[in-house]
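> forwarded from #structure-qc
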């Protein structure tokens, strides 16, 4: 799901929506900006259902890659048999609580926290978690980071230092300056989990 629209970008740039001459390039800039912002966040942004194999650390928290959390469908303890087959044992939802819920204003990745002294067994990819995370309405500051980066791309479209290469189908890849990425990271800072 796109996080922004071409019409929103045009509004930000003061370009009339019915002016279509540069739509192809504007869409390329918008797509590149979205990809880069998602890459900087190192997670998805739009609400979706995720299936993740998480690693228990022998403590009370099981960290997930996505967030904020909306709900958890199932959590299974995974054991592996011969030939790589997996055996699943369902974990009762009463054994944990969700930490990092969207309806509580959370912006980072979610985690499952053991309830009543429950701990997550240590192991690599030993829990299969199916859950819903992300936003249905993309936060304004994430959108603003995308628009700012897209505007920078549009401004630098003829700069050989910014354009990495032109591909045969007319698409262009961009090389972002460290200063520009610092600005993006500053805008989306509240959504970044450092050291995850």
């Amino acid at each position: 799901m796109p996080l922004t629209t071409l019409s929103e970008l045009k509004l930000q740039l003061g370009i009339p929506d019915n002016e279509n001459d540069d739509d192809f390039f504007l869409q390329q800039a918008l797509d590149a900006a979205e990809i880069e912002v998602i890459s900087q966040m190192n997670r998805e942004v739009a609400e979706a259902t995720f299936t993740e194999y998480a690693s228990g650390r022998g403590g009370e928290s099981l960290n997930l890659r996505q967030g904020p959390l909306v709900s958890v469908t199932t959590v299974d303890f995974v054991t592996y048999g011969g030939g790589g087959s997996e055996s699943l044992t369902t974990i009762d939802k009463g054994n944990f609580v969700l930490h990092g819920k969207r309806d509580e204003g959370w912006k980072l990745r979610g985690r499952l926290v053991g309830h009543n002294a429950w701990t997550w067994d240590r192991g690599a990819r030993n829990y299969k978690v199916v859950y819903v995370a992300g936003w249905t309405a993309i936060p304004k500051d994430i959108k603003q980071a995308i628009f700012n980066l897209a505007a920078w791309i549009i401004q630098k479209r003829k700069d050989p230092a910014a354009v990495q290469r032109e591909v045969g189908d007319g698409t262009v890849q961009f090389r972002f300056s460290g200063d520009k990425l610092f600005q993006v990271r500053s805008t989306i800072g509240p959504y970044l989990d450092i050291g995850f």
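QC bot note: The chain has two domains: 6-43+138-191, 48-133. The mean pLDDT is 89.
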